[in-house]
Every structure is written in structure tokens, then in C-alpha cells.
Specification:
The complex is a heterodimer of chains A (220) and B (396). Chain A has 220 residues and is α/β, with parallel strands linked by helices. Chain A has helices at 16-27, 41-47, 67-77, 92-99, 111-114, 117-128, 136-141, 155-165, 170-177, 181-194, 203-213, and strands spanning 7-12, 32-38, 55-59, 82-87, 107-110, 143-144, 215-216. A 5-stranded parallel beta sheet of chain A has the order 2-1-3-4-5, with helices on both faces. Chain A has a two-stranded antiparallel ribbon with strand order 6-7. In chain A, helix 4 (92-99) links the parallel strand 4 and strand 5 (107-110). In chain A, helix 8 packs across helix 11 and helix 9 packs across helix 10 (181-194). Chain B is built from 11 helices and 5 strands; from the N terminus they run αααααααβααββαββα. In chain B, strand 4 (366-371) and strand 5 (377-386) form a beta hairpin. Chain B has a 5-stranded mixed beta sheet with strand order 1-2-3-5-4. Chain B folds into 3 domains: 2-163, no CATH class; 177-246; 249-395, Heat Shock Protein 90 (2-Layer Sandwich), CATH 3.30.565.10. The interface between A and B is medium-sized, with 26 and 22 residues.
């Protein structure tokens, strides 16, 4: 991806107020260009030409259909488009189940995060670099399931994995935890081994999906 | 296509059966001709039987053999077409009974005639009488049996319709009660939970304004952060609860998706396995089920899982969904929720289960709560569901 070209984004959201808010905060952002916006599934499929969009921000609840079906349809037409799913309720389990078979793993933000300028722009930038982004608030609320490799992970490594799941690069993880990027890399190697990740997969993405699979986010 | 073929087949059977009946009816006629020739046959003026009589007799015998052969062949053809083995046993027994009775009646009738005639009747006459009597009795008994059968079918149909009407009525009442319950729940949630929390939030806003007025921006910022967090929790849990009371999750998503979302909200110590069997994977788990069926199946699983955790303190829950295809686009969905908790203690008076049972029965299904092989409770239900016939047939 050349540095000169802006990130092309599509926004699909049925609530006009929220859509307006997201469009306004992305419009003010250098390096990001909103090339399409829509309120529903059929409108989005008509507005988003294959190859014209790098990241599609999709609300789960739409006027017609839902963000899941729309995301699948968009990736069927153009496997390179990355999907950022947005929902007002915790629908993280959907992202996990879809990402297994999708051309690229989906990212997820709660509606609260998606309307905060910093969070949304950060998520889009991280996604543009090929990372998966999971809402930080939900990542922090995640509790490992009993009797899983994730539950056996030492606290320090669990924290590293949480930050990776939020879409942070190694450098950002390192500065957040006050350790060197080299140490982060070493931790990740251990994490990949402990989580018993499938051969040949993109380990960073696979580790995030395993993190989601082996944890729950209880209510309250 | 299939229906056309069976219609053509039925027409062929009717034609062949009619031909058989006509042919069999011809048998006594020929026999009577034979008898007439032998006893009162054309006699030449001189008293000697005419040659024509002997020829006529030969012709009659040949005709008799031919008619019997053709009748037997057509009977065989009809039997092959009807495929006697597919006839149910009671129907076959009935056919044997009718034939036996008719033969008896024919024999009695011939015997009586034989005895009342002044001199011993010749063979062809007796045979003709037996055949005629059998045919008459066969006809009479068949008509009687058909009449009785038709009456029984009509009564059964009336009973079935009555049961159907009663069930529809029950289902309508259940639906009304369910709607009222949901309204009451939503109203309570709005009044009890949401309103109280909003009142508290307003008080916090007032407090923040006071802090700002008294020149304490740092405290105000801190309070605002806390308020924002609380409002988000309110939106996430309370508003979601109200929304899902009004329209359950499974209404918007496929059953498998809704169950996945349910799994994600369980406490970390609870393991939940979901298995799909039979046509369940494609039909039950997919979007092809009508929303009402999806919602009911989801509610049953949700109830089973909630009971397992709240009453049974279970660590493991097993959910099995099984679909059974049946005729005319109707399938049966089986759902079984097992847990390893403490199980049922005494007579359970779970209002949730009772409500669900009423809903399931209203749809012509059944729901039971009993002990599970896993050690805890087992909630099992069977529900007739509408599914696209093509899909059910493809996998049958």
C-alpha cells in the first residue's frame, strides 16, 4: 500500500444520526477518504463497487438484512475488502465464527468506540496494516474459559495477547507495557506455542481468533 | 411429475379391473348357454340333436377357457400395478374375507337350487349358479364395506378437524397470554430498571454541574468519566434486555448464530456444546426456518441453559438439535438440553418450563423435563416445524 493513497472507507449504518457522526469525524481525518455510505444492505451493494473500498464499516442491525450477510457478500465480490463490524450489543461471537471462513478475519468495534474519533481512526489504520482489531472494552472484559490453554496463560502473556487482539503493533504493545519490542516478540512466540495454533496460519490473526474462542464476556 | 405417473397408473388399474369384472360376469352367461345346449339343446325334427348343437358347445367351451384366461391375466396385471405387497394387511385380510364369504353364499345358493330342482342339475348349471351367487354376494358385501369405511373415514376426518380447531384455539389463547406477559415484562423493565437508573444519572449530572460551579473541574471530569461508563453499561445490558424481550435474538439471526451469541455470554466455567443431527444442520441451523419456529427453539435452549446454571449449578451443558424430514414440507425438530448439575429436586414448579410447554403444545409438539444421563436435568422438546419441502426431500 503506497503512503500517498488515502485509505478508502465505506460506512453502512441505518441510524442517520450515527452515520452522520461517523461520516463527519472520518471526513475531518487526513489519509482517510469515505468513498461510499449507505443505510441498508441493498443500497450498500449498489454503492460499493468491487475494488473501490479498502475497509467497509458495517453496522449489524440494518434497515434491510444485516451486516453479517452484507459483509459476506462484499467479500465474495472482492476478497481484498476488510470488514469492520459495528454493533450496539456484544456480537463478538459472530465475528469469531465468520472469520474462520472469510478471506480475511473481521474486526469488531462497539458502537460506542466507533463514534469516538480516536478509536475508530486507530482501528481503521491498524486494519489497513493487515491487523485484526477487536474492541478494547470487550477485550478487557474477556475472561478465559475454564480448562482452556488460554486460561493456563501467565498474566503477563495474557496481557500481551489482549493488546494484540486490540490491533496494536508490537511497538505499541511494548511501550504500553514498558518492555522492549524484542521482549514482545519473544512473548508472542511462547503464546503461539501455548495456544497450539494451526500450522501455516497467520499466527497473529489466528492467536486473536483463539483468544476470542477460548474466552467469554459475561454480562454486567 | 410423480403425481401424474401415479394418476396414469390408477387409471390403468381401474380399466383393467373393469375389464376383469365384465369378463368374470361373462363366465356364468357362457355356462348357462352350455347348460341350455346340453339339456334343452337344439334338437332336429327327427329327435336327434343337431350337429350345430355340438359345434355351439365346442365354441362355448373355447370361449369359457379364453374368458377365464383373459380374466386371470387382467387380474394378475391389476395386482402387479397395485403392487399387492404395498396393500396394508387389514385390507388384504378384508379382500380374502369378502371372497370367501361370497364363495360360500354362491355355493349355498347353487345347493338350494340343485335340491329344489326335480332332477339332478347338470355341472354347467351348478357352476353358473355358484359363479353368479359369488358375484352377487361379492358386490353386496363390497358395497356394504365401502359404505361402512366411508362413514368411518368421515367420522375420523370430523374428529381430526375438531382436534385441529381446538388446538388452534388453544394456540391463539397461548399467543395472547404470551404477548401480554412480554408487554408486562417490558413495562416492568422500563419502569423498574431503566427509569431508576436514568433518575440516578440525572442526579449525577446535577452533581457534576455543582462541582463545575464550585470550580472543581478535575472532580467533574472524573465524575463524567464514571457517568459515561455507567450509561454505556445501561445501554448494553438494560436496553438489550428490553429489546430482546420484544424481539428475541433468534428472530434476526439463524439459530446457530443465536446459539453462538448465547454461548459467548455464559460464565467462563460453563462449557456448552451444540450438536446438529439429521437435517438439523441445514434446515434447523439455517435461515430457512420461519422466525416463530427459530424463536421457540431458541427459547427452549435458553430456558434449559438458564435452569442448568441457576437451579442446577451445572458446569457442562449439552445441546442437541435434530431434524426429521417428513411429508409435505413439514419436519419435526427435536431439541434436547442436558446438564451435569444437581438436577431436579422434588416436583419442579418452574414457571418458565410451564410457559414453554404451553407454547410447544399449542403448536402440536411436546416438552418434557426429567433426569439426564449427564447427572443433571434434561429438557427435551419435539416441535413440528415448517421447512422448505425441497430441502427436506433432498436429504431424506
Amino acid at each position: 500500500m503506497s503512503a500517498a493513497r488515502p485509505l478508502r472507507v465505506a460506512v453502512v449504518e441505518d441510524e442517520a444520526m450515527v452515520r452522520g457522526l461517523v461520516l463527519a469525524l472520518l471526513g475531518a481525518q487526513p489519509g482517510i477518504e469515505v468513498v461510499a455510505d449507505a443505510a441498508g444492505q441493498s443500497e450498500a451493494l449498489a454503492a460499493i463497487a468491487p475494488g473501490a473500498v479498502d475497509v467497509a464499516v458495517l453496522d449489524i442491525e440494518l434497515e434491510d438484512g444485516n451486516g453479517l450477510a452484507l459483509g459476506r457478500a462484499l467479500q465474495d465480490r472482492d476478497p481484498r475488502v476488510r470488514i469492520l463490524l459495528v454493533s450496539s450489543h456484544n456480537m463478538l461471537a459472530l465475528v469469531r465464527s465468520i472469520s474462520g471462513s472469510a478471506p480475511s478475519a473481521w474486526s469488531y468495534l462497539s458502537k460506542r468506540s466507533s463514534t469516538q474519533p480516536g478509536r475508530l481512526v486507530q482501528a481503521l489504520t491498524d486494519m489497513a496494516k493487515g491487523r485484526v482489531v477487536i474492541d478494547p472494552a470487550l477485550v478487557r472484559r474477556s475472561v478465559p474459559r475454564t480448562d482452556t490453554p488460554l486460561a493456563a496463560l501467565p498474566v503477563a502473556q495474557f496481557r500481551v495477547l489482549q493488546l494484540v487482539a486490540e490491533g496494536r503493533a508490537n511497538g505499541a504493545v511494548a511501550s504500553e507495557l514498558g518492555i522492549t519490542p524484542k521482549a514482545v516478540e519473544a512473548q508472542l512466540t511462547v503464546i503461539y506455542r501455548l495456544l497450539d495454533l494451526p500450522e501455516g496460519a497467520n499466527h497473529r490473526v489466528a492467536a486473536v481468533l483463539e483468544f476470542l474462542r477460548q474466552s467469554v464476556r459475561p454480562d454486567g | 411429475m410423480v403425481r401424474d405417473a401415479s394418476l396414469a397408473e390408477r387409471r390403468a388399474v381401474a380399466l383393467i379391473a373393469m375389464a376383469g369384472i365384465v369378463l368374470i360376469a361373462a363366465v356364468p352367461a357362457i355356462l348357462l348357454v352350455l347348460w341350455a345346449i346340453e339339456d334343452f339343446g337344439p334338437v332336429a325334427p327327427g329327435g336327434e340333436p343337431m350337429l350345430a348343437g355340438a359345434e355351439l358347445r365346442r365354441v362355448a367351451y373355447v370361449a369359457l377357457v379364453l374368458v377365464l384366461a383373459v380374466a386371470a391375466a387382467s387380474g394378475l396385471a391389476a395386482a402387479v400395478l397395485v403392487r399387492l405387497h404395498v396393500l396394508a394387511w387389514p385390507l388384504r385380510r378384508q379382500a380374502v374375507l369378502v371372497l370367501g364369504l361370497s364363495l360360500g353364499v354362491g355355493a349355498v345358493r347353487a345347493g338350494a337350487l340343485y335340491l329344489t330342482l326335480p332332477r339332478g342339475a347338470p355341472g354347467p348349471f351348478v357352476a353358473a349358479q355358484v359363479t353368479l351367487g359369488t358375484l352377487e354376494a361379492c358386490f353386496a358385501i363390497s358395497v356394504a364395506l365401502y359404505y361402512v369405511g366411508a362413514r368411518r373415514r368421515i367420522r375420523a376426518e370430523e374428529r381430526r378437524r375438531l382436534v385441529e380447531t381446538q388446538r388452534a384455539e388453544r394456540a391463539r389463547i397461548e399467543a395472547e397470554e404470551e404477548e401480554l406477559r412480554v408487554r408486562r415484562d417490558v413495562s416492568r423493565q422500563l419502569h423498574g430498571g431503566l427509569q431508576q437508573r436514568l433518575v440516578l444519572a440525572i442526579r449525577e449530572v446535577d452533581a457534576i454541574r455543582d462541582e463545575l460551579e464550585h470550580g472543581r473541574p478535575a472532580g467533574a471530569a472524573h465524575s463524567l468519566e464514571a457517568l459515561s461508563e455507567r450509561l454505556d453499561r445501561l445501554r448494553e445490558s438494560e436496553v438489550r434486555a428490553v429489546a430482546h424481550s420484544l424481539y428475541p435474538l433468534a428472530g434476526d439471526f439463524s439459530l446457530s448464530t443465536a446459539l453462538l451469541l448465547l454461548t459467548d455470554r455464559l460464565p467462563p466455567s460453563v462449557r456448552m456444546d451444540v450438536r446438529y443431527e439429521g437435517v438439523a444442520d441445514a434446515v434447523l441451523a439455517g435461515y430457512s426456518l420461519p422466525p416463530a419456529d427459530r424463536v421457540l427453539l431458541f427459547s427452549i435452549v435458553e430456558e434449559g441453559v438458564n435452569n442448568a446454571m441457576l437451579h442446577g449449578r451445572a458446569d457442562a451443558v449439552s445441546v442437541v438439535l435434530r431434524g426429521e424430514p417428513s411429508t409435505e414440507g413439514r419436519s419435526t425438530a427435536h431439541v434436547v438440553v442436558d446438564d451435569d448439575g444437581t438436577g431436579l429436586t422434588g416436583e419442579p414448579t418452574l414457571s418458565g418450563v410451564a410457559r414453554l410447554r404451553a407454547r410447544v403444545r399449542g403448536r402440536g409438539g411436546d416438552l418434557t423435563l426429567g433426569p439426564s444421563a449427564m447427572g443433571g436435568a434434561r429438557l427435551a422438546a419435539r416441535i413440528p416445524v415448517l421447512s422448505p419441502a425441497a430441502e427436506a426431500e433432498d436429504r431424506a
